[in-house]
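With this grant's support, we have settled on a layout for protein records. A representative record follows, to show the layout.
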Amino acid sequence: RCPMSNPNVEPLDQDFVVAAQVPDPNLYFFHDPNLTRLDDGTLLVSAPQWRRQPATGGRSLRILRSDDGGQQWDELPALSLEEGTPFVLDGQLLMFVQEKTHRNFQITASDDRGRTWSAPRTIFEGPLWSISTARVAHPDALYWTMDYDSSDDKVDYHGKVMVRLDRKMSPLDPAAWSRSNVVQRPEIPAALTRKLFPLDDRPQISEGWRSSFVWLEPNTVDVNGQIRVFVRSVIDENATSNMAAVLDYQPESNRLSFSQFASWPGGQCKFFIIHDQPGRLYWMLSNLVTNSQDLLGWGERMRDTKYSGGPGNERRWLFLHYSADCLNWFPAGCVARWPDRVHRSFMYPSAVVDGQDLVVLSRTSRDAENQHDADLCTIHRVRNFRDLAMPLHAGGLQA
């Protein structure tokens, strides 16, 4: 009898496909690549490629397309943009773009499966920003929570704002969009941090955040008719890991508000949620960590080896989870891993359902100098992903 494989030990798809690679990892890195699926099954990746030392022409948006489920990728003409998140709505291929990152909410569209795009249309002016995060599409409206930065040049992800699209109107029409109040970040309860990495005393780490609490990259989800937002939370330079901030949104009043902090596997790094309505479950990709408070004694070598941030900024274990209420999560398995190198990573995931499979895009560091600056965009296919879940609705109190 063959032993049963354990998806938490043996990765679900370690044999990845490289969709894109930077020309030189010493000069370039991928910022925040994004994946979408067209209605005909075409897969499309937008990959912001940035030069390490900013210079004229140092940033572009690479576009890649696959017609065979992600095995082969064709590169389409690149765009002179710094950010791009493609998505499909009402049969139309759209993309949230920015000519300058963290400045203005802009939309463009393509009628030829991503080969050419319309000129970016500015919807809102101001310090809005987003990447591949979950959106909610109701019959009448699309809801998508954005980061809203401070008004100065010190981007630190202070606020969150809900943007709404009236689906009866063209998404290229600024009048079709509206936005909510801006929610400022809450105070961190003292019990959630030991202040191991205070702002004025970080001799063992390089880089890092300017604040002891940073929240960013919110996912917007419909939970039994309630629109909720789950936000990555970087607390004490990731020393307090696996936490997320929770916001609630009321469409009637167009009001967004902070509700609570919640335990969240991998909440210290960028995560991605999919609402799989046929299975009545939510699926979430995130990075689990090994040594968030440096109890293993990595500190003396972290700065010397160019490890980025605190020890909790580890990104080498990309895991898949599932949930019935989008709050309490069960482990489904490890998608991919680097067991021997903390300077490598599978991170910043996005994903689409493709038939019975889940196709995952990872921002991947293999030959880059640290776990943050990715040199690859890799594709992972989790086959028959629904089979990884237990029947969480069975035995409940529902009629």
